[in-house]
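Moderator note: this is an archived Q&A kept for reference. The question asked for a predicted structure of one protein chain; the sequence and the answer are reproduced below.
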Amino acid sequence: MKKNVLVIEDDENIARAHEMILSEDFNVHVAEDGEKGLAKAKEIKPDLVILDLMLPKIHGIDVCKSIKSDEGMKNTKVVMVTAKDQPKDELKGMDTGADDYIMKPFEADELKHVINQVLEK
């Protein structure tokens, strides 16, 4: 049975690219902002969330905190994806409970590798 992956990404082209890359191996759901992403996460209880850091309505850091503090989703894995490439940004993401952190741009194989690695932990 395929695992559920939720992509929370405000750039429609990037979200579609994630969906194309992952749809063969996972059930992929997409939300275009932090508010809709959090609502969808509560609804479907995904195995993993691919979370953009810079989101409208609710920032990615706050979405991650909400997921990790929710009793029903605390085991949901979170991979943050962002163009912010400063070490302090990565530390901030990891401090909020993210399981991994990928810098944009990245290759499809890198995304798949990180997701599989995180899900195996």
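Archived answer notes: The domain at 3-120 is CATH 3.40.50.2300 (Rossmann fold).
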